[in-house]
Write a structure and sequence with these properties.
The protein has 209 residues and is an alpha+beta fold. The protein has helices spanning 2-9, 12-22, 30-58, 146-149, 181-184; strands at 60-64, 79-83, 97-100, 111-117, 122-125, 132-134, 137-138, 158-162, 167-171, 187-188, 192-201, 207-208. It is elongated, with a radius of gyration of 34 Å.
Length: 209
Amino acid sequence: MTQAQDSVVDDPTHGTTAAAETGPAPGPTTRTRKRNTLLEWAVVLVIAALSAFLVRTFVVEQFKVVGQSMESTLHNGDRVLVNKLGYRFHDPRRGDVVVLEPIKDVSKADLIKRVIGIPGDTVSMSADTCQVLVNGRELIEPYLDPIAKTPGGCGPGLAEVTVPSDHVLVLGDHRNASQDGRSFGVVSFDKIVGRAFVVIYPSSHWQWL
């Protein structure tokens, strides 16, 4: 009996079995780890894509300038960033460069113009002198190309108009090559996509607007 008890106590097989039964549980397999990693990346990509969509839709969007109507401030092919959120907190301001939704019978694409008249303003422009009058005073426009200030170099004039509430009057900086408020009148706030605030491409044209 003593020998049998000694052989049981000293049996290395039993000792090993006891340790295995009381040790830590096995970790995840390689396949499980790969599946978890792929799932994590999928979640990250979905969140990134959703964030980009929300930013582009509601906050900031990039637009490409097509045409010459805003020269020499903006040139054909320039890319600008447009703040789509700002006008939720304040009204457009005189001098802002804005992107507009397409205007019926004028353009099938978005337009980019400069705000000249805000609600309550009385605006006119002489085709002979190219002077813009706002509330009876000449509007100082340092952003204009000299040609746009040259008598006869600004295209058609604008008969006096009073801008109603929740509307703006816009003109292109290149007055002689722009379809703007002189042809389609005032524009309601809800047609404004946002304010262009910086040129980001090409780098040689970089500027705040």
